[in-house]
């Protein structure tokens, strides 16, 4: 399997200048290649392949007007052309699938995140990595590389932080001992995850902790010259924008750290994990829940849990979003006609069992997941059950 190993790097002034130069060159090559493709299609009705565009690169470097392209990493420039080709392929693939994707756009130098990818690079020791055109760069190597190295992406985020992400393939799976434990997981806003054994994992609500500070800095940013589209950003605007970005980064880092800890614990402890296949995008469209759902990051929770189950040899079962897990009695199977979201505990009218709403839902999700794995009669299409994802 493929894995990315992301390290924070601390380039010196000369290295930062070279990174900025390479980012600018890659952006120029991408935009010029996009212009060539669009112009060729407008004139002849045919596109230009990435191989033809790659053969144009040496000529662009020899041109007196664009000779500065030779100062950048050649592999990074070629990768920009490949990225454009991939963007075209993804666009037409989504069109064939019936979606409404946006056509590839020209890249802006003011984009919040800048990056380039190259084929060279290695980890020197715990405090240094080596990158093409940059040499040895100070870094925080938090874990060793595993598998076979493929490429490295150098990125600059809106908060002014630099990262190097090494992509490796053939990464060995974790030697995690097998267990007979199975768990159902019910995701929520008040409680991030409720487990079928009765445990509840609280929602840290990282955004709420920084909400007042974040709003104050946003108001300051709105008063700086450069907020409007036709205004040239002032130095104070750029500085304030970085302050706002740092708060964003702090919230995102805290949220990601919490999700990693929870999903790692779940994948380590259980052999079979059953969870609901929530429509996170649809939930965000509800303006009453959008902020809370985004802060909880249901989609990221599912993504992390899925790849961690795969690398540990666990089985992840996804139960359909329309499965009535909350209003079905986990003791006798009686289903209520309705159960408002405000009702957190209820008693079954058939058997008299007293239920905590979230714990009951987690137990029903576990039971439905077991039915999926055992392929019992009536499982196919049962109440929206959609998939079983074995590792």
Kindly list the characteristics that best describe this protein.
391 residues, alpha+beta, Nucleotidyltransferase, domain 5, 2 domains, seven-stranded antiparallel β-sheet, six-stranded mixed β-sheet, 10 helices, 15 strands, elongated, disordered C terminus
Q: Number of helical segments?
A: 10
Shape category: elongated
> Whole-number average pLDDT?
90
Task: Give the proportion of residues in helices.
Answer: 40-55%
Architecture per CATH nomenclature, i.e. the level-2 architecture of the largest domain: 2-Layer Sandwich
CATH topology of the largest domain: Nucleotidyltransferase, domain 5
Distance between the termini: 11 Å
Largest sheet geometry: 7 strands, antiparallel
Strand line-up of the largest beta sheet: 2-6-7-1-5-4-3
Please give the radius of gyration in angstroms. Answer: 25 Å
Put the structure in a nutshell:
By secondary structure, the chain is an alpha+beta fold. Helix content is 42%, strand content 20%.
Question: What features would you describe in this structure?
Answer:
With 391 residues, the protein is α+β, with helices and mostly antiparallel strands. The chain is 42% helix and 20% strand. The protein has helices spanning 13-44, 50-62, 74-96, 206-209, 211-222, 235-269, 280-284, 290-296, 298-312, 357-374, and strands at residues 3-10, 114-118, 122-125, 128-131, 135-140, 148-156, 162-169, 182-187, 191-195, 200-202, 272-276, 315-319, 345-347, 354-356, 387-390. The strands form three sheets. The protein has a seven-stranded antiparallel beta sheet with strand order 2-6-7-1-5-4-3. The model is unreliable at 376-391 (pLDDT under 50).
């Amino acid at each position: 399997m493929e894995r990315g190993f992301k390290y924070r790097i601390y380039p010196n002034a000369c290295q930062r200048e070279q990174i900025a130069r390479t980012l600018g060159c890659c952006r120029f090559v991408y935009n010029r290649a996009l212009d060539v493709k669009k112009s060729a299609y407008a004139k002849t009705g045919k596109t230009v392949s990435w191989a033809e565009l790659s053969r144009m690169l040496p000529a662009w470097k020899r041109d007196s007007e664009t000779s500065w392209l030779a100062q950048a990493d050649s592999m990074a420039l070629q990768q920009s052309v490949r990225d454009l080709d991939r963007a075209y392929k993804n666009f037409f693939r989504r069109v064939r699938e019936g979606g409404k994707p946006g056509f590839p756009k020209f890249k802006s130098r003011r984009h919040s995140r800048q990056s380039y990818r190259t084929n060279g690079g290695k980890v020197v020791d715990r405090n240094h990595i080596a990158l093409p055109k940059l040499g040895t760069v100070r870094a925080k190597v938090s874990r060793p590389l595993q598998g076979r190295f493929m490429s490295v992406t150098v990125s600059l985020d809106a908060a002014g932080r630099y990262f190097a992400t090494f992509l490796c393939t053939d990464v060995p799976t974790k030697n995690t001992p097998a267990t007979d434990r199975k768990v159902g997981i019910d995701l929520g806003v008040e409680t991030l995850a409720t487990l079928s054994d009765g445990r509840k994992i609280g929602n840290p609500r990282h955004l709420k902790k920084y909400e007042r500070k974040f709003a104050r800095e946003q108001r300051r940013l709105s008063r700086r010259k450069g907020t409007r589209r036709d205004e040239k950003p002032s130095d104070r605007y750029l500085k304030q924008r970085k302050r706002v970005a740092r708060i964003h980064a702090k919230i995102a880092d805290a949220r990601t750290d919490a999700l990693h800890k929870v999903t790692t614990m779940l994948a380590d402890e259980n052999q079979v994990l059953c969870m609901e296949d929530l429509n996170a995008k649809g939930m965000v469209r509800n303006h009453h829940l959008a902020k809370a759902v985004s802060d909880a990051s249901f989609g990221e929770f599912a993504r992390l849990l899925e790849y961690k189950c795969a690398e540990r040899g666990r089985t992840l079962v996804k139960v359909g979003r329309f499965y009535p897990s909350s209003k079905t009695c986990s003791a006798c199977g009686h289903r209520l006609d309705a159960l408002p979201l405000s009702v957190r505990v209820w008693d079954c009218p058939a058997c008299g069992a007293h239920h905590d709403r979230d714990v009951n839902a987690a137990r029903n999700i576990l039971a439905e997941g077991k039915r999926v794995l055992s392929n019992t009669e009536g499982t196919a299409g049962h109440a929206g059950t959609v998939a079983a994802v074995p590792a």
